Each structure stands twice: as C-alpha cells, then as structure tokens.
C-alpha cells in the first residue's frame, strides 16, 4: 500500500547573517513561482508549528487508512472462506446440544451467551458481575469439554 506523500506548498529555513539568525518562509505563488521572504521569529515558529501539526495529521491519516484496509481485507477473507457443508454443520450442532448437559450451569450459560448470542467476554462479565478472566476461563473450559465429547463420539 502506498502511503500519501506529504507535499507542502511552503518551506522554512534559517540563516545566520552577520552573526544574527534570520528566519525565512518560502512558498509557491499562484503563478507557480517560488517566493521567499524574511519573517519575524514568532511568525516562523507559528508556521513551523502548523507544518508539524500537518505532518502529524498526515501520518495519523495514513495509519487510519492502513488499518481500514487491513480490516477490510480480513472481512473479505472471512466472507470468501469456504463454509461448512450443511449436513456437517447440523451434525455438529446436534453433537453440541447433546454435550451441553455435561457442562456446569455457569459454563453452559457463559458458553451460550458467547457462542449463540455473540456477546464478548467483557459483556458477559458485566452481566454476571464477575471478572473477564472468570468468564474467559469458563468458556475455554466449556469448549475443551465439548471438543472432548465430540471427538469421543465421532
């Protein structure tokens, strides 16, 4: 991915002339001619701050664009991933239903909230008034038990 190129229509420079620091701002006028003028130090510093802010914003924009493209690529990858055949999905669903009574009430509730209702660990922890770690541990344990049951049955 090519990131946006920073193109400023102005530039700055300093020069020591006769032992005194002079400040210059250069820009391209409306006719395309490069112009340079001496400016007071305060103006130079203010313009330089503006340039730095533009650079930060440009880098921030580039990062957001890159993250957006990565997220889009992940979504496309998920959308075109091969799906499970219907009969296999139904069989797996029936196996899971048969194995749910093997879980504790807490494991079963948290697993179903996560797997069937799409809640994340933080949301489940907020509902149940417990830590995210407790929810995570319950769901991991539930998945391990369900895998063991399905592999033993299969």
Features:
154 residues, alpha+beta, disordered N terminus, Arc Repressor Mutant, subunit A, 15% strand, three-stranded antiparallel sheet, 3 strands
Structure description:
A 3-stranded antiparallel sheet has the order 1-2-3, with helices on one face. The chain has 154 residues and is α+β, with helices and mostly antiparallel strands. It folds into 2 domains: 10-79, no CATH class; 86-153, Orthogonal Bundle (Arc Repressor Mutant, subunit A), CATH 1.10.10. The chain contains 5 helices and 3 strands; from the N terminus they run βββααααα.
Mean pLDDT metric: 80
Helix content: 55-70%
Overall, the morphology is rod-shaped
Largest sheet data: 3 strands, antiparallel
| β-sheet strand percentage | 5-15%
| Series of secondary-structure elements, N-terminal to C-terminal | EEEHHHHH
Quick overview:
The chain has helices spanning 41-79, 86-99, 105-115, 121-128, 132-153, and strands at residues 10-17, 20-28, 34-39. A hairpin with a 2-residue loop joins strand 1 (10-17) and strand 2. Helices cover 61% and strands 15% of the residues.
